[in-house]
Amino acid sequence: MNLRQLRYVVATADHGTMTAAAQALFVAQPALSRAIRELERELGVELFARAGRGVALTDTGEEIVRYARDALRAVDAITAVSASPPGGRPGARAGELRVASTLTLEPELTARLLPAFARDQQAVRVRVLRCDGRDAVGAVVRDGRADLALTDLPVPGDLAAHPLEQREIVLISPPALNLREPVPMSALDGMRLIMPSRGGPRRAELDALLARLGVRPVPAVESDDRASWLPSVRAGRGSLLWYRNQVEAAEGVVVRSLMPPITATIGLVHARRPLTPVARDFLAFAKSH
User: Fold this and answer.
1) Same CATH fold, 96-165+265-288 and 3-82?
2) How far is Cα 28 from Cα 49, in angstroms, rounded to an integer?
3) How many angstroms from the chain centroid is the CA of residue 150?
4) Cα separation of 246 and 3, whole Å?
5) Architecture of the 3-82 domain
6) Which of 22-36, 75-89, 113-127 is predicted least confidently?
7) Three-class DSSP category at 60
8) How far apart, in whole angstroms, are the C-alpha atoms of residue 220 and residue 207?
9) Would you tell me which of 16, 25, 104, 133 could form a disulfide with 54, CB atoms 3.0–4.6 Å apart?
10) DSSP letters of 222-263?
């Protein structure tokens, strides 16, 4: 038994499929499955049972995952001690938390996560770095300008990723656009869309998503000014693909699910080196909230 196997088991329990767990951990799915099977043989128990298209923990698996989480938390705590400031007491809190975020997710960070965290950590100074896309996020955590970063996953395997939640991507359209609910993916073919400007990282990510879906919408408005997107939809210039939670209360537009659904995972990432104690505190806080 080793820590790698325990991380694989916990990730599979969290994600519900071995494929999703492997993607989150940036390992090959066969390698993850093989490691879990080896652990099951070593322990002489079955940890997971088939459940539809995914897997579910057995009763024994539930108990073992509880212990695995405790073990991984203990390892994290040991790492945190090693990251204490030189000459400081073990676990002493650093005075500054530096968190980067993509422009898209910055409202999540500054309006929700950081204010709630700061209420319990009033002595901590917080700096937010705004990044235009996942590549920029990766750069600032690799070179040490940020302790953590909030971004869409996946990210390259040299970064440690901690999934926080899945977000549904929906279609936001002018009220006059007659579409059935949910919107079939094929309806996006030839549809007029509000899109980021060409050549930028956000446009590259959207183009990659559309290519995976096999659809070719028509760029109706191309702008990186996010504040202009919903007004453009209200004015009837085109539709928009966006996170449901960020447009649920928007007026003057119609929000529709897509079929099959499109989801994106957001999470916190950091370089594969010990975090400062305050960064570890924030990571644990974000996971629990």
Assistant:
1) no
2) 20
3) 7
4) 37
5) Orthogonal Bundle (1.10)
6) 75-89
7) helix
8) 14
9) 16
10) E-S-GGGHHHHHHTTS-BEEEEGGGTTT-SSSEEE-EES-EE
pTM value is 0.60
Could you state, in order of their start, the residue ranges of all structural domains in the chain?
3-82, 96-165+265-288, 166-263
The residue length of the chain stands at 289
Task: Write the pLDDT tens digit of every residue in 138-181.
Answer: 999 999 899 999 998 888 888 999 999 888 999 999 999 989 98
d(CA 23, CA 153): 9
**163: β partners:** 267
pLDDT value of position 240? 95
What letters, b where the CB count within 10 A reaches 16 and e where it falls short, cover 245-255? ebbeeeeebbb
β-pair partners for 262: 169
Torsion of CA 57, 14, 115, 249, to 10 degrees: -100
Residues 6+ apart with CB under 8 A from 152: 102, 104, 105, 134, 205, 264, 265, 266
The domain made up of 166-263 has a fold known as: D-Maltodextrin-Binding Protein; domain 2 (3.40.190)
Helix axes 3-15, 18-25, angle to 10 degrees: 120
CB atoms within 10 A of CB 208: 10
d(CA 194, CA 227): 12
CATH code, residues 96-165+265-288: 3.40.190.10
Give the Å distances, CA to CA, from 241 to 105, 192, 216, 236, 269.
Answer: 15, 11, 13, 15, 24
Query: Mind listing the pLDDT tens digit for each residue in 27-61?
Result: 778 888 999 999 999 999 999 998 877 899 999 99
